[in-house]
Amino acid sequence: MARTGGPVDVKHVAVLTRFSPEQSSVPKKREASPTPEQLAYRELEVYEQFQSSHRRKKALRAQRNMSARYNPNTSQTYHAASWTLEQAPITDKGWQRVNIRAMERNEIRDLLLVTRSPKLMNILARYQLVYYNTSDQLATRILDASGRLFIYRSRLSEWQRKLLPSLASAIKDFTEMTQVSEDDHANNKRGSHKFCIAGIDRQSKEKPAECNWHRKGRNSLALQNLFQTEAMQAFNSIASDLVRRHFPKIASRMEGAHKSLQQKYGIPDSPFGLFHNFCINSPVFEEGIEDVFCIPHTDAQNATILVCAVLVYYYGQCHTNADERIWLVFWDTGIIMQVPAGVFVIYPSALFLHFNVHIEDVLMVTKDGSFPTRENTIPFRESSRENGGRGSIVRFTQASMFISAELPADSIKQAEQLNAEAHSRGVPLINTFFDDAQALREGFFPYNV
Description:
four-stranded mixed beta sheet; alpha+beta; nine-stranded mixed beta sheet
């Protein structure tokens, strides 16, 4: 008889259950042990239930991420109204961009050397200015004319802002410990600053291996020390998380490349998260170069349907938010963006020409509204900075790494040699192309939905 109140006597309940009159007094026949086939079937059922649950959870996460990516309360949107990703000149094989002609690049560089030139102002006056207005600035998304996200600028949280001095200090220790050859500095095609490129690549190599800088002197040790600091670990994690959230198919491609390279060559996990390469651009105070100021270039060696992550840092006093003087120009797209310290910009650096510009050199104010000239204008916004220096950090991956990861060969050249042998034997050939058009259709740069 069941109790209606008070604590339950566990032993009493157990006895009632065991000798209940509803149960037969005849002992039950012991069930036979399941066969290996039955056990395997049960395991399969459990696994399928787990997979179904995992898929549902994954779909919900994707839905939440999509809402976070395109929530107007957490981001603002601009459009490159006259440019689409299909306009980017990509090589026939699809892995890399067609490098810009030196003559065209130099013409733009010469134009920038003429401070406040009317020709330059005529061009940039038609560009869309993307400001970073206040400390409460939302994240920013730039869509191409087809409505696909291709540039993302993060917002700057307060805890990131507090980490900036520690990050600058860690980079200063790093640059003092590392070696950059005079030849590398003199041959920098992106500006007069110093730079280093760390990580693994396959440039001029048969198989992926550590790049030249990485193997010199104490450079590798300096890099390890840098990535053990709290500030670098935090910003490193943010870079990959931003790519996963806002460019999920690109992130999936990068993760697949990591797995493939590990299987083929035993390459360990990258310290740079989703990326294989890491570059620090730093001022050269002894030569009077206080700011990293990149001249027009394309990163034609980088993979095309991919993104890089750029972060600006400052030594000492720095411009913040709307005071940032050096902006980033995306030449082909008609966009000029303000990028203050601590803010990430995620974009496909291989697909268009980009460079820095001093905003006061191209934005002037006239009292009577007449065409601005050197004599009748003042800088758009006056500000001063003492005892500071501007640098940048870039995370990226070169196209050669994806070729080694995604082809059943080390390089396109080797794949074509295998194809020549296969053709003579009448066996199927290796596809040596990356279908960039298909990747665009599949939403590697996601549509604004």
